[in-house]
Automatic annotation (TrEMBL):
HAMAP family: Hydroxyl_YbiX. It comes from Shewanella inventionis. This is PKHD-type hydroxylase. 2-oxoglutarate binds at residue 168. Its cofactor is Fe(2+); L-ascorbate. InterPro entries: Oxoglu/Fe-dep_dioxygenase_dom (IPR005123), PKHD_C (IPR041097), PKHD_hydroxylase (IPR023550), Pro_4_hyd_alph (IPR006620), Pro_4_hyd_alph_FE2OG_OXY (IPR044862). The gene is piuC. Residues 77-177 form the Fe2OG dioxygenase domain.
Length: 226
């Protein structure tokens, strides 16, 4: 699980919220698969709406422009982002994301390796609504500032607790990673982040950095699935 700061600026979040307020929304259960439908109680922006598609494409661009997301997820394919909204009493019980997802309007499918939530509401705008992810270290509760995101393995059991005040708006998407193994992907992320810190500190010999880069990219070559 990795928290990504400022995927969207405050200005971008405000623009998203204003445009989403004008878009058509529907029962989120219609988009759930299998057992997840019985525990899903929220609303989802109409993915067929032109403005919703435009917002989703803009968010895809922001994802590609955020190095920490690329480092953490190593995305090969990305499902078009969806926008959900939880009002008072609404929640999404424990579920696991579908392993295989068909991209709407196409015959293309992706394997969900990495899930991502981008928060579009500030924490003080609502009570409840925490994203709870079951990990090997116990349950992790996530409630981040608007514009921040969290990425986590799609294999994780997770839920969104009931909103008791206000409204929680977020974007969600799933990625098929070039590296399917969660532990290996996490190790590669840690290695890449360590290299970036050494570069920014500007205290490490260039030859040593080149060696580390060589190791990292050769590991990517060895384990990448395209």
């Amino acid at each position: 699980m990795v928290v990504i700061e400022k995927v969207l600026s405050k200005e971008q979040v405000s623009a998203y919220r204003q445009q989403l307020a004008q878009c058509p929304w529907g029962d989120g259960r219609k988009t759930a698969m299998g057992m997840a439908a019985s525990v899903k109680n929220n609303n989802q922006a109409d993915a067929q709406d032109t403005n919703v598609r435009q917002l989703a494409n803009q968010l895809l661009g922001c994802i590609g422009d955020t190095p920490k997301i690329v480092s953490a997820a190593l995305p090969h394919k990305i499902f078009p982002p969806c926008f959900n909204r939880y009002s008072e009493t609404e929640e999404y019980g424990y579920h696991v994301d579908a392993a295989i997802m068909r991209i709407p309007g196409t015959s293309e499918v992706i394997r969900s390796d990495v899930s991502m939530t981008v928060f579009l509401s500030e924490p003080e705008e609502y009570d409840g609504g925490e994203l709870v992810i079951s990990t090997e270290f116990g349950q992790q509760q996530i409630k981040l500032p608007a514009g921040y995101a969290v990425v986590y393995p799609s294999s994780s059991l997770h839920k969104v607790t009931a909103v008791t005040r206000g409204q929680r708006v977020a974007a969600i998407t799933w990625m098929q990673s070039m590296v399917a193994d969660t532990n290996l992907r996490q190790t590669l992320y840690q290695l890449d982040q360590s290299i970036q810190k050494l570069i920014n500190a500007n205290k490490t010999d260039r030859a040593e950095l080149d060696n580390l880069h060589n190791v990292y990219h050769n590991l990517i070559r060895q384990f990448t699935q395209l």
